[in-house]
Amino acid sequence: MAKFELRLPKMGESVAEATITSWLKEIGETIEMDEPIVEIATDKVDSEVPSEVDGVLIERFFNVDDVVQVGQVIAVIETEGDEEPKTESESSPVEVEEKAVEQIEETISIAKETVTPVISSGNRFYSPLVKNIAKQEGISQEELDAISGTGKDGRVTKNDILSYVENRGVKAQSTPVKEDVTSTPQVKVETAPKVINIPPVIPSGEDEIVEMTRMGKLVAHHMKESIQTSAHVQSFIEADVTKIWNWRKKMKSEFMKREGENLTFTPIFMEAIAKALRDYPMMNVSVQGDTIVKKKNINLGMAAALPDGNLIVPVIKNADQLNLVGMTKQVNDLANRARLNQLKPDDIQGGTYTVTNVGSFGSIMGTPIINQPQVGILALGAIRKVPAVIETSEGDFIGIRYKMFLSHSYDHRVVNGALGGMFVKAVKDYLEAWDVDREI
Fold it and tell me: How many angstroms separate the CA atoms of 67 and 157, rounded?
């Protein structure tokens, strides 16, 4: 009999660790290849880790709520045969060296950005994610050491520190902060940013207190961080989509019969937005310090509502290279898997611009928050049947048209009003110039 080491797989370029949320198999149970063994959660998405072999689970190295690093062995599976299956650890020396270099470069980069880094102290170990959140929120070593951890051996988990950040303002009112009077002449001590004390909410006996979900906490943190990072500005424009409405009405039945897919408005809008991003590449950028990173690929994020009310943004990769059939299949696949909570971490990585459909809830316009580190997001309003002035060579007259508002939020640090306005105007022009005789 041979033993196979199941490791936590790589789940996207920015995901370094995951939290065990549930074991789906007990020790001694038989497992088939590709059968899920454990459920995990990252700061991006919840997922499952499948088995890579057939066999019997004989050992588990982590418990629920433990934090596991990418590449760590999480379980051992006993397989038939004498030859041990190859695991991810059996990489070539070149691959191992490249991974080591990447980890060292990342460590150096983080060290350069941190003046007084948080470190593991005593018997307490802090994961890289916890340290990073502590650095971003200005949490001192003393504060971090005082947080009660719910993880293994009292370890501080991601949820612990996010919960502490939420309640920090309330606790600051009643908890005195000790000042360190010991000074070092060679080190310049910078004053931490002033914490705004938020008055505590005192519930009455009739109020219901509902604990935020893990995903809800992450979304709230991400939205607050975006507002604090980007200078949000909005531009609004109204588009006449009568041609698209009539064309889709004519084509959707034929499309369903031929492709087995529902032809919605979303892929049509996505196609127009991808074209506009190609025309205005400075909307397809990110800000890094004092530099602007121009993205080569156009990867459209598509905000999707989850059954529990939370939000997730799957990404359509290289959207400008897809035809309408390909775009439709991508949109439907990602939307369906989002609703079923079956998205993989890579499905939500690498977005360069985001689109959100506020019209699906009846809203005619909105002021969406930018999905960091992007610099723009477009909200699609509800399509309405309205009276409008129609200009013709024979004069003006009133007619019934299908119209919608496009609400464009952009980062005024790098996108001025002219660029933000011209971009959304380009989207409008593409929509209004739709070819009613187009074949798909």
Answer: 7
Beta strands 315-316 and 291-294 are unpaired
Q: How far is CA 106 from the centre of its chain?
A: 21
What pairs with residue 78 in β-bridges? 3, 56
**What Cα–Cα distance (Å) separates residue 73 from each residue in 55, 70, 238?**
16, 9, 54
pLDDT in tens, the chain (440 residues): 788 999 988 766 556 788 888 899 999 899 988 888 998 887 666 778 888 889 999 999 999 888 888 889 999 998 886 655 554 444 444 454 555 556 555 555 554 454 455 665 555 667 767 777 887 787 888 788 888 777 766 778 777 888 888 777 555 444 454 444 444 455 555 555 566 667 777 878 888 888 888 778 888 888 999 999 999 999 999 999 999 999 999 999 999 999 999 999 999 999 999 999 999 999 999 999 899 999 999 999 999 887 777 788 999 999 999 999 999 999 999 999 988 888 888 898 999 999 999 998 899 999 999 999 999 999 999 999 999 998 888 899 999 999 999 999 999 999 999 999 999 999 999 999 999 999 88
Q: Which residue matches tokens 């994961």?
A: 127
The span from the CA of 253 to the CA of 115, in Å, is 62
- Provide the 8-state DSSP code for 186: T
